[in-house]
From TrEMBL:
Keywords: Ribonucleoprotein, Ribosomal protein. Belongs to the bacterial ribosomal protein bL28 family. This is Large subunit ribosomal protein L28. GO terms for molecular function: structural constituent of ribosome.
Length: 61
């Protein structure tokens, strides 16, 4: 029989941060809630490619 007194299960949250990016095609800055891994993806692919992908999914920017 277990003697553990842990009552709640552990929560795994990614490192979510709010970051502002300037998008030249829109002529303004956009505020995105991204994880640190997504930040590296944006640095690698560029903000323009990521924004067009978000628009293709018809998500709000």
């Amino acid at each position: 029989m277990s003697h553990s007194h842990r009552r709640t299960s552990r929560r795994f949250d990614p490192g979510i941060q709010t970051k502002q990016y300037f998008v030249p095609s829109m002529g303004r800055t956009v505020r995105l809630r991204v994880s640190t891994r997504e930040m590296r993806t944006i640095d690698r692919r560029g903000i323009e490619a990521v924004v067009t992908e978000i628009r293709a999914r018809e998500e709000k920017i």
